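The methods section describes the discrete structure representation at length, but only in general terms. What matters is that the chain and its backbone geometry are given together, residue for residue. Nothing conveys this as quickly as seeing an actual entry. For illustration, here is how one protein appears when written out as sequence plus structure tokens:
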Amino acid sequence: IAQMKSELAQSQQSRTEAQAAAATAVALDTKARAAFDGQSSDLLANIDALTKAIAALERGMTGGSFLQGGVGAALRRAVMNSDKVSDSDRTSVLSFLSGGSSDGGRYAPQSGEIVGILKQLKDEMSADLSALEKEELDRKTNHQGLMKAKTVEISVLTKTIEEKTVRVGTLAVEVEKMKSELSESERTLLADKELASKLTGSCTTQASEWEE
């Protein structure tokens, strides 16, 4: 029974560890999803701003006009926060937005350069978004596989624990029964010894009387 209790304790410990691992995986998944949501939202917002800015520039909108609408602020954020833009390109875009192009801010020679910069930046951000989405998909697949494995492991351990708990209880009852039977046998044996002793004493007494 001691061995069975030891195995039961080990199964319980293994289940506790599996449950802890599953809980940790869920916490990490929640954190990773939040990070993905934030990064993908930023990229989508920047790509949207770039798309609108490129379309507006190709229609002939001037740099100053961007600032009067909602596109300019979003474009400025996209350019300022992106590590894909070189310092010189960033300076050119910001200068254009502030109306500092060579012809006073009108849709002029500099606009072609700006459109090229924005298109390249959009392509790079779109590639980043695709890579991020693939990474998230792979991560989710791995997480789901891990959780499935842990769920099966916990289920198997739970069944094992239930079976061993029943077995330990059954063995405990059997041990107590054996102890009870042993005690009864001991009492019977003691009584038999006492009876034998009395009979022996009685026979000795009778033999002595006959000899007399």
Notes: The chain is about 90% helix and 0% strand. The CA atoms of residues 49 and 74 lie 6 Å apart.
